[in-house]
Design a protein that fits this description.
The complex is a heterodimer of chains A (130) and B (288). Chain A is of the alpha/beta class and 130 residues long. Chain A contains five helices and five strands, in the order βαβαβαβαβα. Chain A has a five-stranded parallel sheet with strand order 2-1-3-4-5, sandwiched between helices. In chain A, β4, α4 and β5 (110-112) form a beta-alpha-beta unit. Chain B has 288 residues and is α/β, with parallel strands linked by helices. Chain B has a single domain, classed as P-loop containing nucleotide triphosphate hydrolases (Rossmann fold). Chain B has helices at residues 6-10, 14-26, 28-36, 56-67, 97-100, 123-132, 148-155, 170-175, 195-208, 226-242, 245-267, 271-285, and strands at 44-50, 73-79, 88-90, 105-111, 137-141, 158-163, 184-187, 214-217. Chain B has a seven-stranded parallel sheet, sandwiched between helices. The chains are: A alpha/beta (130), B alpha/beta (288). The A-B interface holds A 1, 3-4, 6, 25-26, 28-39, 45-46, 49-50, 52-55, 82-84 and B 14-15, 18-19, 21-22, 25-27, 81-82, 85-91, 93-94, 97, 100-101, 106-109, 111, 113. β2 of chain A pairs parallel with β3 of chain B. Magnesium ion (MG) binds at residues 56-57, 92, 141 of chain B.
Chain lengths: 130, 288
Amino acid sequence: MGKKIKVLIAKPGLDGHDRGAKVVAMALRDAGMEVIYTGLRQSPEDIAKAALQEDVDVIGLSILSGAHMKLCPRVLEFMKQYGIGEKPVFVGGIIPEDDALELKKMGIFEVFGPGTSLEKIIDSMRKIVK
Amino acid sequence: MTELSLEKLKAEDVKEISKALTIIENDPIEAKKIVGALDEKDYCVIGLTGSPGSGKSTLTDRLASLFSLKEKIGIIAVDPSSPFTGGAFLGDRIRMKRTSRNDNVYIRSMASRGKLGGLSPSIYNAVELLGRCGFKKVFVETVGAGQSETDIANLADIVLLVLAPGLGDEIQMLKAGIMEIGDIYVVNKMDIEGASRLKSRIEAVLDFSNHRKDVILTDGIKGTNLEELARLIEKELQFLKESGKIDEKRKKRKRFNKLNTVFQELKELPDEAIDRLVEELKKLTGGR
Ligand code: B12
Ligand SMILES: Nc1nc2c(ncn2[C@@H]2O[C@H](COP(=O)(O)OP(=O)(O)OP(=O)(O)O)[C@@H](O)[C@H]2O)c(=O)[nH]1
Ligand SMILES: [Mg+2]
């Protein structure tokens, strides 16, 4: 029995745009992954805690509110605090290019903006979980 | 044991418990070893089943929250795997926001993995691990379809059958005989038209089949009657303990765990070995 890839898809902060998060979650499910979706309005601590309890391979954050520069470092901080700082974090949504670079420096693994093909997202997740 | 610290597990470390559950889900042989390395403890399993969308997650969240005031609570929320891709969308946490912040509650989502509509065979060891890691009550939420009702009855000490008005499948539930599986009947969404009618209907069916069981109306969103439901659960547990029935339930759980593990191990064997086993089995069963 091969190991299943487990992914947490979360929406931090007060952002109500959940279409992208759901589209990505469904695509990952259809690619054979087990996707845990925690719904809207999660605090960075909630997300880290869920990732810890679920022992996921990847954490995916969907942020369209513009608050990514505030939220991402908080999520990374809590992940360290919970002892899971090594898990890769993907971010998607409305992220300007300069911010994307900054986020990657901070420790975010990948950033995907609008129009990214779902195949590309699936492939990059498969690549890191081997 | 693969990169797992037994000391940390015994100290009930959350990260270690999470890692152990992943191994248990992926490897039945390792699962047996991990669980076997921990001391057996006293705990109970409460199953929630019933129509999709009837409010199982919402109620689990509420109940776990109430019980967590005095003890550690574990939750395993099962959702179906796609039979085609093997993938799964596990969404029960959306309705478990209350307890996801509670340090006395541990939530784990689990896909049914291959068993159509049923529970993953690894659920027995997953539940047992939580029991041995100090969780006094383990809630198991499962969608009430296909095989899962009988599975949950084999696994749990108490089964809550959660129904709600307006979902349109209550009648099928009544017909399909799944009424026998519940120990406590919960008519959730009492704020919606038709709830009391559904309650009377269930009571009538239970009367007819001579089952003396509690039927309770709840509102999962407002929390109405949730303390009463928690009390019914404690009452039922008390009854199981005093009557000694709890031991039968535990034996049954262990038996099904063993059967499941054996089946997993058998699947790895070559055909000749299976043929030999079938011959041996014939001797045990008298040739049937
Ligand atoms: C649809 C939409 C809405 C809908 C949302 C419906 C819903 N339930 O999702 C409604 C009408 C409700 C809405 C409301 C608002 N919106 Co609006 N909305 C949009 C719009 C037009 C499309 C978003 C969308 O659904 N795209 C389709 C999905 C599939 O794409 P996506 O989310 O980008 O996802 C892709 C990638 O980003 C990536 N991805 C996304 N998440 C993740 C996660 C992971 C893990 C990975 C790997 C990848 C990934 O993969 C996906 C596939 O390629 C955008 C503009 C735009 N073109 O993006 C504005 C936009 C996001 N909205 C905006 C605003 C301002 C608002 C409002 C504040 C407007 C207002 N003043 O009231 C409100 C706020 C609502 C709230 N509570 O948060 C701004 C945000 C500006 C900013 N961030 O700086 C945008 C960019 C419009 C604009 N140009 O100004 N909105
Ligand atoms: N009106 C009303 N809605 C409720 C009540 N309890 C839960 N809900 C809502 O019913 C919907 C389904 O609730 P869940 O708790 O997710 O139900 P579930 O049985 O776990 O659903 P599945 O896991 O998908 O089978 C959600 O939108 C809840 O907010 C209630 O008492 N009254
Ligand atoms: Mg649910």
